[in-house]
Design goal:
The protein has 402 residues and is α+β, with helices and mostly antiparallel strands. The chain has 10 helices and 24 strands. It binds flavin-adenine dinucleotide.
Length: 402
């Protein structure tokens, strides 16, 4: 049998937010990109909104602006003008205001499906990007010169580089024989859209409970999106409740900051894990987004890290081509990996630290937590630094790919 064979310049596996961002970043590069996504996106609605949302930090909004994606999102994105964090010990907690760092917002809350739709719109005029969906890979094989990916329909694509953007359970990572450092929090993140009695004024709330954080994130239209991290058993109990009982539990836990929470949409629960691939690159393979690293959603940084991966990898590919280098070679891919690892490790380390600090009920840690919160709250300089770091504003703005 003579199977259909084609060649291209980069194969991207996975058309989630991160894989799509890479395709958008490469759309003007002149390179022939093939993006393979196994299924059409489905939206899980909750009060008429996607229950999957992402807080995109201010620094990364600049990336989306540069890619031409942001204009399609501006109307629906909810600005996060301030953030308040508190726990049972320090009821006042800390408040971070965007105005303190001269910004209009710390970030924006977007529905994942809206972000993906905006990226698809950006790709409509991309002559050199082929989007194959639904399409599933059956085999992948590497040689010194190229990688060959064979789809279930028999079509085979050959390229100098394949990129794994296929999420936390990456098929491609598995096929490359790369395993992960893993931490299972034995928790679920419960998400839903809720309606508060009072206006949220663009404030994101994060309440730390002994079991994990409960985030109440401001959406457009006065709604909020919750991410409630709870131990597996407790999460099972919360998911089994009817809406009225769930709202009761939520009100009792969150408190009256926004008046009563008076409505809730459908809920969904996601297991919470942290993981880091033991290799982010191999010859003719690069991992980006959750395929490379998965972080606890408590700071809402997973997609944010992935967007930065996509931009840095796109730059390295384009630069390699400009200087007549083979962009699938390990020396080129190592440049991507070396730029990204410090950011990824810093975020993973900070998330683990926060998780330990706020969930372990040890007296010493409680004191440290209280002292830390007071120190940050009272020191303008520390607060300023924290805000610039967590919003991605202290990071260099990636060059846009042209
Ligand atoms: C409860 C919760 C809340 C979160 N909140 C935030 C937040 O506020 N901010 C933030 O930055 N991050 C947040 N995150 C993290 C964020 O959702 C992830 O980091 C992000 O979805 C990763 O995007 P990705 O494109 O790398 O992977 P995915 O979103 O997993 O996409 C992978 C894509 O690959 C496709 N695919 C998989 N296997 C194959 C295959 N073999 N062939 C072809 N296609 C394949 C899938 O269908 C999918 O479309 C949150 C996570 C959770 C669980």
């Amino acid at each position: 049998m003579n199977a259909h064979q084609e060649s291209c310049d980069v194969i991207i596996v996975g058309g989630g937010m991160v894989g799509l961002a890479l395709a958008c970043a490469l759309k003007h590069s002149g390179l022939h990109i093939v993006l393979i996504e196994r299924r059409e996106a489905t939206v899980r609605e909750s009060l008429g909104r996607d229950c999957r949302v992402s807080a995109i930090v201010r620094g990364n909004v600049r990336i989306l602006e540069g890619l031409g994606v942001w204009p399609y999102l501006e109307q629906s994105a909810g600005p996060i003008r301030a953030m308040r964090i508190w726990d049972n010990q320090e009821p006042g907690g800390i408040r971070f205001d965007a105005a303190e760092i001269g910004e209009d917002a710390l970030g924006f809350l977007v529905e994942n499906s809206q972000l993906q739709k905006a990226m698809h719109r950006c790709l409509l005029d991309a002559e050199h990007v082929e989007y194959l969906c639904p399409a599933e890979l059956e085999r992948v094989a590497w040689t010194d010169e190229s990688v060959r990916a064979t789809l279930k329909d028999g079509t085979a694509w050959t390229a100098p580089l394949i990129v794994g953007a296929d999420g936390g359970r990456s098929w491609l990572r598995g096929k490359a024989g790369i395993d992960c450092h893993q931490r299972d929090f034995r928790q679920q993140g419960i998400v839903a859209t809720v309606r508060p009695e009072r206006g949220h004024a663009g404030v994101a709330y994060q309440r730390f409970l002994p079991t994990g954080p409960l985030a109440m994130l401001p959406m457009s239209g006065g709604l909020c999106s919750i991410v409630w991290s709870a131990d597996d058993d407790e999460a099972g109990r919360l998911m089994a409740m009817d809406d009225d009982a769930f709202l009761e539990a939520l009100n009792a836990t969150f408190g009256p900051v926004l008046g009563r929470l008076v409505g809730t949409g459908a809920r969904a629960a996601f297991p919470l894990k942290a993981q880091l691939a033991r290799h982010i690159v191999r010859p003719r393979l690069a991992l980006i987004g959750d395929a490379a690293h998965t972080v606890h959603p408590l700071a809402g940084l997973g997609v944010n890290l992935g967007l930065r991966d996509a931009m840095v990898l796109a730059q390295e590919i384009v630069d390699a081509r400009r200087f007549d280098e083979d962009w699938g070679e390990l020396s080129v891919l190592n440049r991507y990996m070396k730029q990204r690892l410090p950011d990824v490790l810093a975020v993973m380390g900070a998330m683990e630290g926060f998780h330990q600090l706020f969930t372990r009920d040890v007296p010493g840690l409680k004191l440290l937590r209280g002292a830390g919160m007071r120190l940050v709250g009272n020191s303008g300089a520390i607060k300023h630094l924290l805000m610039r770091n967590s919003t991605g504003l202290s990071l260099p703005v990636p060059r846009q790919i042209g």
